[in-house]
Amino acid sequence: MTVDAAEAWFFDKEAGHLVRPYAITNGRTGPVRDGFALITLVVTADPFADTSRMTPEPAAILDLCRERPLAVAEIAAVLDLPVSVVKVLLDDLAEARMILTRAPVELAEAPDIALIQAVIEGIRRL
User: Fold this and answer.
1) Residues whose CB is less than 8 angstroms from the CB of residue 51 and which lie 6 or more positions away in sequence, other chains included
2) Closest of 17, 21, 20 to residue 85, by C-alpha
3) What secondary structure, in 3-state letters, does 32-57 show?
4) Spatial strand order in the sheet of 99-102
5) In the predicted model, is pLDDT for residue 40 greater than 80?
6) Bridge partners of 11?
7) 10: pLDDT strictly greater than 60
């Protein structure tokens, strides 16, 4: 990759081009929807979607999630982006119906103590 003199002042050979997170999200700090937990699974809605005209980060998310679902935390780790940035990008992709998500299963409530005691007493009577 060649770098001309105009670009040389902000180019780091090891890191590549550095883009601030607010530039990736167009200044937004959070998603519109609040449905993206760290363990929410994401998969590309259309595995044959063309990403050639997309910005790099959303295109990378779609490419990562083509073959198997990935958690939001995994996507952030692979792309080396803050989770908050990934959530904003996922929100945009969900709005465009380019991804499908599966929210984590809610934990069941703890059973009632009275019910547990009744079961124990029933077992003792046997």
Assistant:
1) 58, 59, 62, 63
2) 21
3) CCCCCCCCCEEEECCCCCCCCCCCHH
4) 70-71, 41-44, 99-102
5) yes
6) 17
7) no
Q: Is 11 in a helix, a strand, or coil?
A: strand
**Average pLDDT score over residue span 79-98:** 91
Q: Are 72 and 83 in contact (CB under 8 A)?
A: yes
Q: Select the more confidently predicted residue: 64 or 15.
A: 64
Is the dihedral angle over the CA atoms 109, 112, 117, 120 positive or is it negative? Answer: negative
Q: Quote the CA–CA distance of 26 and 23 in Å, as a whole number.
A: 5
Would the pTM count as exceeding 0.90? Answer: no
Q: Whole-angstrom Cα distance, residue 59 to residue 50?
A: 9
First to last CA, the chain: 78
